[in-house]
Write a structure and sequence with these properties.
With 115 residues, the chain is an all-alpha fold. It contains 5 helices and no strands.
Length: 115
């Protein structure tokens, strides 16, 4: 069961992964057979495996990119409580603000390169 933040439990993630793998497998067999002939997928399991690996890698990259965007948005929204941590020191606030902005931009850049 998900917690208050919507975080999935280990069992939920395993179930989701199993369902996704099953769906990708069916798609792989169907796509390969449609393109290369009936039962081609069954005769070439290495092709099905490669198809599944590419699909899983692509999905994983898209999830990471999406989460990096969320992280960058959160970073921007929080601002890391700069005034609270620097005791009003303008130079320290500016330094932390710059570091925060660099991290936020880094997340967005990474997300663009992945996605």
């Amino acid at each position: 069961m998900s917690d208050a933040l919507g975080t999935k439990s280990g069992a939920e993630w395993r179930e989701r992964a199993a369902n996704m793998a099953s769906s990708i497998f069916r798609d792989a067999v169907q796509d390969i057979d449609e393109r290369l002939g009936k039962d081609y997928a069954a005769e070439h399991p290495e092709l099905v495996g490669a198809y599944m690996q590419v699909a899983a890698t692509d999905y994983g990259a898209s999830v990471v990119a999406q989460e990096l965007v969320h992280l960058a948005e959160a970073w921007e929204g929080i601002g890391w409580g700069l005034g609270d941590r620097t005791d009003g020191d303008a130079e320290a606030e500016a330094s932390e603000a710059e570091a925060s902005e660099v991290a936020r931009r880094g997340c967005l850049l990474a997300a663009r390169r992945i996605g």
